[in-house]
Amino acid sequence: MDNNSVYKTISNGDLKLMILSASHSILNRAGEVNDMNVFPVPDGDTGTNMSLTFSAAAESVVGLDDGAGAGEMLDTLAKAALRNARGNSGVILSQILRGIKRGMGGSDELDVAAVKRMACSARDTAYRAVMKPTEGTILTVIREIAEFAEQHFPEFEDVREFLKALLDAGEESLKRTPEILPVLKQAGVVDAGGCGVTVLLGGAVTALETGAAVPLEDETKAAETKAADKEDIDTANIKYSYCTEFLINKSASRSVTQFKASIKPKGDCMLVIDDEEIVKVHIHTNHPGFVIEQALKLGELTNLKIDNMKYQHNEIIGNTVKSESGADESEPPKKYGFAAVCSGSGMDELFRSLNCDVIVKGGQTMNPSTQELLDAAETVNAENIFILPNNKNIIMAAEQVNGLTEKNVTVIPTRSMPQGITALASFDEDASPEDNEVIMTETSETVKCGQITYAARDSEADGFDITEGDIMGVIEGKVRVCGRDVEKVFFDTAKELVDDECGVISVYYGIDADKDEAKRLTAALEKEYPDLDVSLNYGGQSVYFYIISAE
């Protein structure tokens, strides 16, 4: 690449290379971004969420034909990012990419003026996606990049130099985030999401400057990150052998609804997403030929893949979705169905005992994507489906599902697994979907939750000087108790939760907790609070030794 000539526009080949380079860059530095988590709990996942969201979207772009234009590439990137968005940071990133695509307008020419429009559109779309924007975060960084673009774009003719200047503006903005958000200054870090944005932009700029993508430092580690805890298939119970996936470029007048109806009796785990000109199809079937014949009536097929699952060690799609019943969608749909996110085999069983249809594995450190939550909703054969995210960092991803499915999906904004359990227990089969939404939301909000964990590093948080290895009691996202003794922190946390209106205390012990210790601590709670109903359950959750709920 000639670095002396004026670089007026970004070619299609360079754009694809920039996207790949940005993906490698965020994968390489995901751990570094995770370590910027302001909270000392071992659950920093911003880097993981942003890297999984972007890398999956980048793979979709890299798979496009060489003739794909900038508009097609950015459209593919934005749509794939939305479906693969994980956690709040992943959802916001998907909205930034959506704004970039919108800012292009109808032209495929990526010059300085186009980049300015894209930066401004990214800012506007990201801010609209967040109900209560917080400054000193990823939003501030993308806003100040856009403001620099608006003010200075007339000074640039070379788009490469303009992008380098935008990167500099983003990095300067990132440095200022601790001055805007006190919790960052207290923890001695910059904003993790904002850092992720600069890492992505930096990777793209490197490709444009050098003509080569940033090398992927550890392909094995990246592959393990993207695998995201896949599990083996029980091949003996596979009813339909062939996992069939493809895209349809619509050209015929036949409706997608007719197509879905025709293939529905031929398999299960069916997913048909009508996305304007493209239809994405996934189905497990014994008759892939029939499915393909029906699809051809809609249009031309691309990205066709048929796998015999009896010879696969892992599921091809929706690996984190586990359905107890393997719902037969040839049966009439029931009125209500449920999908819940949870971590731990004990929690899994508790949710299933309350008639939860599908469990999506996830929680702290492992936020499921919008696509995985969508797959879960599509798996449930019901007219009305409630999703229980059970984590504040999963709620935004869950809220994207309703716009991607024809089913009636409602998200109950549960922030913990105990809240999800209470929400399910309060469900009324005879009530309307709207009334159940109110009932389940209101009852879940009566549950206060405390979590006993350890400090992953030295930190200052919520007035405590925390040393790595300290035991902490975290309530509603704040450290309320800190010490070196698990038992004392356990009781002090319980004391913070119990008030005059409390009637029930539930204790869930995790995979790293001792069962005998859990029994002893719970028995002591019963003595301390003889008028309350105290119960002990095996949760099997990681990260948290104990979860205590009071309601």
CATH homologous superfamily assignment of the largest domain: DhaL domain
Give the end-to-end Cα distance, rounded to a whole number of Å. Answer: 65 Å
Number of domains: 4
On the 0 to 100 scale, the average pLDDT is 85
Widest sheet: strand order? 14-13-10-17-15-16
- Percent of residues in beta strands: 15-25%
Stated plainly, the CATH topology of the largest domain is called Serine Threonine Protein Phosphatase 5, Tetratricopeptide repeat
The percent range for helix content is 40-55%
Could you explain the architecture of this structure?
- The chain has 551 residues and is an alpha+beta fold.
- It has 4 domains: 12-227, DhaL domain (Serine Threonine Protein Phosphatase 5, Tetratricopeptide repeat, Alpha Horseshoe); 235-311, Alpha-Beta Plaits, CATH 3.30.70; 332-444, 3-Layer(aba) Sandwich (Rossmann fold), CATH 3.40.50.510; 448-550, Hypothetical Protein Tm841, Chain: A,domain 3 (2-Layer Sandwich).
- The protein is built from 20 helices and 17 strands.
- It has helices at 12-28, 30-34, 46-62, 70-83, 87-104, 112-129, 138-152, 159-180, 182-187, 192-210, 219-227, 256-263, 288-296, 345-353, 370-379, 395-399, 417-425, 433-444, 486-497, 515-528, and strands spanning 242-250, 267-275, 278-285, 299-308, 321-323, 334-342, 358-361, 382-388, 408-411, 448-454, 459-461, 464-466, 471-475, 478-483, 504-509, 533-538, 546-550.
- A 6-stranded mixed beta sheet has the order 14-13-10-17-15-16, sandwiched between helices. Strands 5-7-6-8-9 form a 5-stranded mixed beta sheet, sandwiched between helices.
- α3 (46-62) packs across α4 (70-83) and α17 crosses α18.
- The N and C termini lie far apart (65 Å).
- Mean pLDDT is 85; it is low at 223-237 and 312-326.
